Amino acid sequence: MSIRLGSPILAAGCALLAFGLWQLSPHTLATISPDAHPASGETSSPTDPPSPVPPASPAAVAPSPSGPLLGLPGDVPPTGPGSFTGQSSTGPILGTAGQLKRFRVAVESNLPAAELEELAGALDRTLGDPRGWTAGGQYRFQRVPFAAASNFTIYLVTRETAYHLCRVNGVDIRVDGVPYTSCRQVGKVVINLDRWRLSVAPYLDNGVPLAEYRAYVINHEVGHELGRGHEGCPSAGRPAPVMLTQTLGLQGCTANPWPYVDGQRCSGPPAP
Q1: Positive or negative, the Cα torsion across 241, 246, 251, 253?
Q2: Is 115 exposed, middle or buried, given 0-12, 13-18 or 19+ CB atoms closer than 10 A?
Q3: Which residues lie below 8 Å from residue 184, measured CB to CB, with a gap of 6+?
Q4: Residues near 153 by Cβ (< 8 Å), separated by ≥ 6?
């Protein structure tokens, strides 16, 4: 299924003001509203300059033949057409108790079809993991076709498209002028393709596999969709809360992609 930003059915007013030329199709119109809830993501507030984090490069994250896959080699497209390919199958219900949250999955249409299937599989594995958000018994998740009704949509997009989608409500994902982090908007989780393929320095420097970073960014942004705010490191050497902005640094904690560690919610003090 192919979905394009730019529809004549678009409601006038807030959506046009928020996106300018980046208009939404009827499928995505209901998922972003600047007036509904604040956006969130791994970024500084609009009034504060983002912390300098050197972007990871393909050369720096090439996998070692004898070690875990830390990042994917090769070029990452920085821009895309702003249209999306939606996933059309239904996944299993993940979790055993709590409110059922249905989510849709899409990738920018200049990405290969294999990327969409890989993303869908990673989402099912991560959101269904016993260390994930289902562990508390409050939530269950299910992946549904893009044409189906859902609670939120998870997008994998190029960094420039991520910047435009995340810019609503003043969220700025740039570091040193380059769109760097991912974000959550209302009903919309936006994953930056650069981070999905290349990981980040705090994980690379500690030899943490790319699969673990991917689990982290999914759990962090879905955590925002569930109403969770940012958290700080509880104390040096402890596992980092998943709601800590680990993409930008660990603050003395150790890398951790999971909301629950040893059956207990891993949390820290509230943070901006």
Answers
A1: positive
A2: middle
A3: 39, 40, 41, 190, 221, 222, 224, 225
A4: 28, 31, 103, 104, 105, 106, 146, 187, 188, 189
CA dist., res. 23 & res. 198, Å (int): 29
- CA 199 to CA 209: how far, in whole Å? 9
Q: For the segment 180-203, what is each residue's pLDDT rounded down to a tens digit?
A: 999 999 999 999 999 999 999 999
Cβ atoms of residues 221 and 171 within 8 Å: no
Contact predicate 145/86, CB 8 Å = yes
| Every domain of the chain and the residues it spans | 2-226
Q: What are phi and psi of 261, to 5 degrees?
A: -125, 125
pTM beyond cutoff 0.85: no
Tell me the sheet residues that pair with 94. 141
Tens of pLDDT, residues 51-108: 445 555 444 555 556 689 999 999 999 999 999 999 999 999 999 999 999 999 999 9
Residue 252: which region, alpha, beta or left (left: phi > 0; alpha: psi -120 to 50)?
A: left
Give the pair of three-digit tokens for residue 36. 């509904």
Tokens, residue 39: 């956006």
